[in-house]
Design a protein that fits this description.
Blueprint lengths: L2 H7 L5 H20 L2 H16 L3 H5 L3 H9 L1 H10 L2 H20 L4 H15 L2 H12 L3 H30 L1 H24 L18 H36 L1 H4 L4 H27 L2 H19 L4 H17 L1 H11 L5 H14 L3 H13 L3 H18 L5 H5 L6
Helix pairs in contact: 2-7, 2-9, 2-10, 3-10, 3-12, 5-8, 5-18, 6-7, 6-9, 6-18, 7-8, 7-9, 7-11, 9-18, 10-11, 10-14, 10-17, 12-14, 12-16, 12-17, 12-18, 12-19, 12-20, 14-16, 14-17, 15-16, 15-17, 15-20
Length: 412
């Protein structure tokens, strides 16, 4: 604990300290909630295929617009967070995402399911540019804070998979959306109550100052990050969409009947990935971000290639490592964005990041379904994803060096 953290710990009743702690807490909850709707859908899709009479590719395509909006609407959300209010936007996030999920569960046709998933994705897009910028502003040790926040990003898909399996087996696919949506609405009500009591207040001041960067380094960094973030998003989206299906095909002798066994394995993958972010966050604080970030891609590529050919328990182990490495890159990635983005435009910068990481890469869900329907398996998909990881590694090595950054002149 450094001196600043120690002094803050002695002032638990200070309004700004209380607001900071509550903001961090709701930021972590928001991260978990933002990742609920997609994993729930991918578990429910196995039931919806027969209920709607659609192929696997046509069923997963129902969420493509929602996934694209999850990233494409992020710059607008980030801009509003910068210009208007982070707390106000977070309140809209809880209410809008919760309502969208409830309405998805109440839908009765493929079109209405796709429409309300799109609405859900639109409101869920608020979290990443606003919530992460909010967290970065309050954090002293950014890597550690982003790692803790990342754990909740792993808990979200894990809880989504587990609850979806239980609710689908017990009450049908509709409950898998309605119950979590109701939880978001209740959380939003509590959040609005704390804002009204001024226990959560707006702040625009960073607690941790960044070293100055030159315009040349900023342009170089964001050009490279545009490539790597798109690659990360493509791998994440395609893997998330395909995981339940490939597990059901290649691990059928292990899973048994019903959705719960499948959902438990998916949840275990995301819990492992979330826990890894604690380690990844510490690494991002202790070692050069460029090295930590590039190493994650170097390690992902061989495991993505293995996923193309293995089955049974080996497949589960490969997915566990592969997804953990993919998600483990995020603390370093988000720290890089915070370092090179001006603090007063950080929400917009994160929004632009997520238009790549979740918006454009959202078409990877369509790619997963199309590759499966065309080839009848997953060999082609994971071979392509391994190549994507190699491209990301090559790009990551072009990031500005940390030594050069520390020796650079003040920002132009």
């Amino acid at each position: 604990m450094d001196r600043q953290e120690y002094e803050l710990s002695l002032m638990p009743n200070d309004p700004q300290t209380l607001s900071s702690r509550l903001s961090l807490g709701f930021s972590c909850l928001g991260h978990a909630y933002s990742h609920l709707f997609a994993p729930i859908f991918y578990i429910a899709a196995l039931t919806l295929e027969s209920d709607l009479g659609l192929s696997h590719g046509d069923t997963v395509a129902l969420i493509v617009v929602g996934n694209v909006l999850f990233g494409a609407a992020a710059p607008l959300a980030g801009w509003l967070g910068d210009r208007w209010s982070s707390t106000g936007m977070m309140g809209v996030f809880f209410a809008g995402t919760g309502a969208g999920m409830v309405m998805t569960g109440l839908s009765s046709s493929a079109f209405s399911i796709a429409f309300w998933l799109a609405v859900t994705g639109f409101f869920a897009s608020i979290y990443h540019p606003v919530g992460i910028a909010w967290l970065v502003r309050h954090a002293v040790n950014r890597g550690a804070a982003l790692g803790i926040n990342g754990v909740f990003g792993g808990i979200g898909p894990a809880l989504a998979a587990l609850t979806a399996g239980v609710l689908i087996d017990g009450f049908g696919w509709r409950a898998a959306f309605i119950v979590p949506g109701g939880v978001l609405l209740v959380t939003g009500g509590g959040f609005y109550g704390l804002v009204a009591k001024k226990m959560i207040v707006e702040t625009k001041v960073d607690r941790m100052a960044d070293p100055p960067t030159t315009r040349r380094d900023r342009v170089r960094a964001f050009t490279v990050l545009a490539v790597t973030m798109l690659c990360t998003g493509v791998i994440y989206q395609a893997t998330q969409a395909g995981m339940p299906k490939i597990f059901s095909l290649r691990m059928s002798g292990i899973l048994g009947d019903g959705a719960f066994g499948l959902s438990a394995l998916v949840a275990a993958v995301y819990l492992s990935a979330g826990a890894m972010q604690l380690v990844a966050g510490r690494l991002a604080d202790r070692y050069p971000l460029k090295k930590v970030y590039s190493l994650s891609f170097a390690l992902q590529a061989p495991f993505l290639a293995l996923a193309a050919v293995v089955d049974g328990g080996a497949l589960f182990a490969v997915f566990l490592i592969m997804v953990t490495l993919n998600v483990g890159a995020l603390p370093a990635e988000n720290s890089l964005v915070a370092r090179y983005a001006p603090s007063h435009r950080r929400g917009l910068a994160y929004g632009l990041k997520f238009i790549l990481a979740f918006g454009i890469s959202g078409f990877a869900v369509w790619m997963e379904g199309a590759f499966y329907d065309w080839s009848g398996g997953f060999f082609l998909l994971f071979t392509v994803l391994a190549a994507v990881a190699v491209v990301a590694l090559a790009a990551g090595l072009l990031l500005p060096s940390e030594k050069a950054l520390n020796a650079s002149s003040p920002a132009e």
